[in-house]
Task: structure prediction
Amino acid sequence: MYARVNNVRLFYRRRGEGQADSLLLVHGFPLDHRLWSAQLAGLSSGIDVIAPDLPGCGRSEVPRGPYTMEQQADSLVALLDTLRLDRVIVGGLSMGGYIAFAFWRRHAQRVRALILADTRAEPDSPVAQTRRDEAVARIQEQGGEPYARSMLPNLLDSHNLETPVAARASAIMGSQPAQGMIGALQGMRDRADSRPTLATIDVPTLVLVGESDSITPSDTAREMTSAIPGASLAIVPRAGHLSPLENPRAFNAAVRSFLGRIGR
Ligand code: MLT
Result:
């Protein structure tokens, strides 16, 4: 399905439409809604699941970057407006989590609960910012695919390398538009520090992290959980940074249990 929001054509998948609660799932980098295929299939018997391709990703239009986390959050609110959805549960993985923090800061009244997967509140360090610039230069020179493929070994649990999970992740990452990747890298490089945001979160929050996530490790997730009032943490076994794709059964079970706890 497509929707035109803030003058950008966005692709999204939706399953479970018409149910009382909606779950908006925001993918990470360099990914698209296909990160959430197993959540669209596995959670939509209990909740309306919406998984868009962010601007510059997947089948969505590629506007001029950089894409700030705030612009991305505003695009998602415009999508909710188009779908006539008021308050939703916002779930984001990694860059999707950075966007979820911006969403909370700007549109808290639209958030019923938060799911923060394999993400962090800290901004980029100066070293990380330099790496973003180097990545942009590499993509400008070689296109997006070699860079995306070089990321893969760091993203997955070692058990999942050389499996269909790795092939799936590689296919998603290798098909992202180069200009969209550049816009996202520049937006992440300059993103705000979300640590002061954590104490302001007063909706039910679930933090999830793959047990062997080396990009946003479980210690980071633990610290983030303790800084959010009342938040709970679920560790996803046999998963690295792409936990919903690597171990969908455990990921979905943790989300279902959270949804059960927060009720209708
Ligand atoms: C992601 O998975 O979205 C990225 O690893 C986030 C980042 O590069 O900071």
Residues 28-29, 94-95, 188, 215, 241 surround D-malate (CB under 6 Å). The chain has a mean pLDDT of 97. DSSP finds eleven helices and eight strands in the chain. The first strand starts at residue 2 and ends at 5.
